[in-house]
What we know:
The protein is an alpha/beta fold. It has a domain at about 5-180 and about 215-240: 3-Layer(aba) Sandwich (Rossmann fold), CATH 3.40.50.720. The protein is about 40% helix and about 15% strand. It is built from 11 helices and 13 strands. The chain has helices at about 10-25, 60-70, 85-90, 90-110, 145-165, 190-195, 215-230, 245-255, 285-290, 300-310, 315-330; strands at about 5, 30-35, 50-55, 75, 115-120, 170-175, 180, 205, 210-215, 215, 235-240, 245, 265-270. The strands form 4 sheets. It has a 7-stranded parallel beta sheet, with helices on both faces. The chain has a two-stranded parallel ribbon with strand order 7-10. A two-stranded parallel ribbon has the order 8-13. Helix 1 (about 10-25) links the parallel strand 1 and strand 2 (about 30-35). Helix 2 runs parallel beside helix 4, helix 4 (about 90-110) packs parallel to helix 5 and helix 6 packs parallel to helix 8. The model has no long low-confidence stretch (mean pLDDT about 100). Nicotinamide-adenine-dinucleotide binds near residues 14, 38 and 152.
Amino acid sequence: MRRSLVTGGAGFIxxxxxxxxxxxxxxxxxxxxxxxxxGSRSSLEGLDPDRVSVVTGDxxxxxxxxxxxxxxxxxxxxxxxxxxxxxxxxxxxxxHSNIVGTYTLLEAARKHGIRFHHVxxxxxxxxxxxxxxxxFTELTPYNPSSPYSSTKAASDLLVRAWVRSFGVRATIxxxxxxxxxxxxxxxxxxxxxxxxxxxxxxxxYGDGLNVRDWIHTEDHSSAVLAVxxxxxxxxxxxxxxxxxxxxxxxxxxxxRLMGEPxxxxxxxxxxxxxxxxxxxxxxxxxxxxxxxxxxVDFEAGLTHTIEWYRDHSPWWEPGKEAVxxxxxxTGQ
Length: 332
Ligand code: NAD
Ligand code: DAU
């Protein structure tokens, strides 16, 4: 039985990944998570306690990390500060968790000779024009825009350097925008769903025409596992499911699915430095590792996600007011 350490396993994608791993493999899992505002033990509720344990701690705590690594075969690294708007308000925690945290894990991976998978984002590549026929590939030059994406880019480069200089057995994946259950209400889709559930109107930044390439978090999980199980050490794999949609299109769809007029949204102040479009070409992952996404019906995925938020108000309601107060302060 593989002993896996999952950093950030109490966050959105990490907790969905832990569930996925327990369902499809026989791993035992230790979650290492600082339980910041974005992490919650309740996202792991109901999982088999004989297979999952949670350690509350910081990935930048070298003593703790060293102790934990010695008992594991694999590290899957999701932990990060992840919200662009927060990184524009206060970049400090992003440098700490995303750069120093990843460095700390890499040093332990080097010492213990442990297999390491680094989870990253398509945002490291910057953005594309709306009419650009190109999509991001593994060869696209890095060009991050925000404090968040620049710290993720830095972490990717650290991983590459630790592979080349110290022989760390690592892989990297860069994925597009995820949606699904357990996503924090600060993020676009949960914010708009929970606004409507609370009788508020969705709020679109700028002209609403920015495009994101949506993938269901279950498909992200299966892709990460494919890279862990079949990927080549030292290589990078882009993860995407051909889900490009403008923000306004997403909001109109979810208003319709929630029984509201499709025009019942507001345009608000744009994000500073707002990336226009992301788009992933995942040919390498599909052709080399035989991966295919399963949750490609976006409306069905959105319907299920709306139902999840409708049924899980105790999970998201406590954080909603504080999030909206932060947005209110910037007119968003
Ligand atoms: P999230 O914000 O929901 O969860 C992040 C988790 O990391 C939280 O549980 C938090 O408590 C934990 N964490 C933060 N700093 C920590 C630290 N110093 N030590 C230990 N734990 C810490 O984020 P998410 O959306 O689930 O993203 C997970 C990973 O996937 C990130 O690395 C992110 O860059 C990447 N990613 C996200 C998306 C997306 O659409 N959300 C897309 C591609 C890649
Ligand atoms: O592309 C992968 C990235 O996707 C991940 O690396 C990040 O961790 C994740 O947060 C996400 O980044 P985005 O900035 O694209 O996601 P966000 O949910 O913040 O916003 C999605 C789009 O919606 C973006 O164009 C901004 C817009 N938006 C967002 C919010 C919160 C709005 O129009 N209104 C809003 O209220």
